[in-house]
Each structure stands twice: as structure tokens, then as C-alpha cells.
Amino acid sequence: GHDIIKKRLIRTVKDNRISHAQLFTGPEGSGSLALAIAFAQYVSCLDPEESDSCGTCVSCQKYMKLIHPDLHFVYPVATTKTITKDPVSDDFINDWRSFILDNPYQGQEQWYEYIGVGNKQGIISKNESYKIIRKLSLKAFESEYKVMIIWLPEKMNQVAANKLLKIIEEPPPKTLFLLVSEDPGKILPTILSRTIINKIPKIDKNSLFNTLKGRFLISNDELKKTVQLADGNYLQAVDLLSEEENNLDNFRMFTQIMRLCYAGKIIEIIKWVDEVSIKGREKQKSLLAYALRMIRENFMLNLAKGQNEKIIQLSGEEAEFSKKFYPFIHENNVYEIAEEFNSAHFNIVSNANSKIVFLDLTLKIIKLIKT
């Protein structure tokens, strides 16, 4: 998406009218950071095409890995268990590259979670300003331009902002500042007034649909519903689809283990435990939470005996499976089964050995499911 903005930015390069300080601002999930990086790559491309960078030259290859020596990043950070004093962006550069290469549409909450700052809010401090001034005082290593991308400049404290005023207003030759903001109203006015503003709208529905279709194996109807719900927010669309994919996997894993436990197939159960034990702990917790919901819904279905099924919240596949499963979840075993799943969830959260936790759980379910 954003074809009009892209064409305008490319025209400034071709006409040699690149503004040295630009602000890319749009709502979360609109792709402001991705567009800023793409623009910087185009500026540095050794063989630019009519509407995009070539993607194959040495400069582009380095940009695509975010390791170009003339590309610099600044972003909000905070202390962590390993960085305990005066954190700056360079302390997290490897994390940043991995984070952005995985998905450049992510927001600040995802970033703080990724680097493990807990409940602390990140800032751009005065120490960062010294780093910026020092880096930009050096000559470019390979490209014509040195590029400084500042993500979320609204997180810059006043001391840091004041120290950058002069260099943003009168930068060294061939220096490009690209600020990327979700809330420009919180940027220091003296900084804001020195930038050319590029307003990035929400991603249009057709572009969002086509991008997601290339990433997710899902029906067009479901994809259209997701695009409608996401309202131009790529990040929200991915979250919705990832949740759907996760639910499908949870359904598969849950129904498989319930059938194996009922049949008492120990060898197959061990294979199932091996599969689930190599999943990340977040997925393991998600599976256990899903199992608890299915146990509850099937118990409610058992109580209803088909008289008032409107209170049951099951999807089509879940409802079909539960027609045969619900008789096995009743008042004589539901509390113990739920307790076993709750206990397993607690143990996974406590970093217990997942293989032992799930093997113990399944062996107990074998007995309880036949009660």
C-alpha cells in the first residue's frame, strides 16, 4: 500500500530534493517504520529502479539485514536484568535487528516485551544524544548518505531533545534524519518544527488482503473478515490470524490426546508428549488454557443434555467433536480433570520440565476419562 507516498518520496530522490529531516507518522500497524527503512534503502541503493530499490546490490543486501554501516537506529530502551545502568540503543542492536526483521510492523509494547524490560517504559535519554552526535560526525563509510532512523521520538526526554536540536537543524552534509512516530503530538515542538511531515494512512484493504494471503493459509472469506476487523492495522491482522492458527493447532492437539488417552495407547501418547514438549512455553500454556475451556464447555454440554445449548461456545469443528466427547466429561470427573490441567499449567509457568509435566498429565487423564 501507500503507493502515492512512495512515488512522492522517490521523486524527491530523483530530483535531488531530499529533505534532511523527515517525520513518518501513522497509527500503529500502518507501516511507518517499514516505509522509512525502505526509503533509506532506496536513497542508498547503487542501482535504483523506477519504483523501488534494486534489492540486489551490495548496499541493498546490507540494508535488508539492517547491517549497513551508514544506517543507524535509535529507539526507546530501559534497564533489564543484563543492562542495569544507562541503557542506550546500541546495547540492544542485535535484539532490534531480529525484532524488525521478524516483523517491522510491531509496536512498542511488543518491543518492550521482546527485550524483557518488565513493566518499565522505554525512553530515549541524553546518553543517546551523545551517541547520535558522535556517529554523525564521522564520514559515511560506504553510501552517499548517513541515515539516522529514530523510532518513537516522542519517547525522547527534553534534555536529549535539546541536545539534538542543532544537529537536526544543521546536520553534517549528506545526513538524513528519519523520525518515525505514532504520536507526534508528544514530540517536543522545537524538534517537530524542524521536520517535513509524511502522514502515513492506514493500509488499504486490498493491499492488506493481498499481503496476508501470501503469508497465511486461510480461506478468502476468513481473510476478508480479518481484514475488516483489523481496519488497516497489519499488526492486529497478524495477531488475529496467528490466534486462529494457534486455535486450530490447539484443537488438533487436544482432540488427539483425548482420543489416545481413552484408547490407552501409551506409545502414541509418548509421541504426542514429545511433540508438545518441543513447543515454546507460551504455546504449551495456550494449549492447556484451551484444554480447560474445552473441558468446561463439554461439561456444560453434558449438563444441558441438548435442552439449552445456546450457552455453549464452540466452533463448528469443536461442536462436531464434542457431540461424541461430552458424555465423558461429567460431575464425577470434571473437577479432577480440570485440577490436573490447572496443575500442569502452573508447573509450565514455573519452568518445570515440560516432558515430565505432560506425561504425568496424560497418564492421569487415562484414568479420569474412563471414570
TrEMBL record:
Q: PANTHER family, alphabetically? A: DNA POLYMERASE III SUBUNIT DELTA, REPLICATION FACTOR C / DNA POLYMERASE III GAMMA-TAU SUBUNIT
Pfam families recorded: DNA_pol3_delta2
What protein name does the entry list? DNA polymerase III subunit delta
Instruction: From the UniProt record, give one GO term of the biological process aspect.
Output: DNA-templated DNA replication
The record's listing under SUPFAM superfamilies reads: P-loop containing nucleoside triphosphate hydrolases
Q: Coiled coil where? A: none
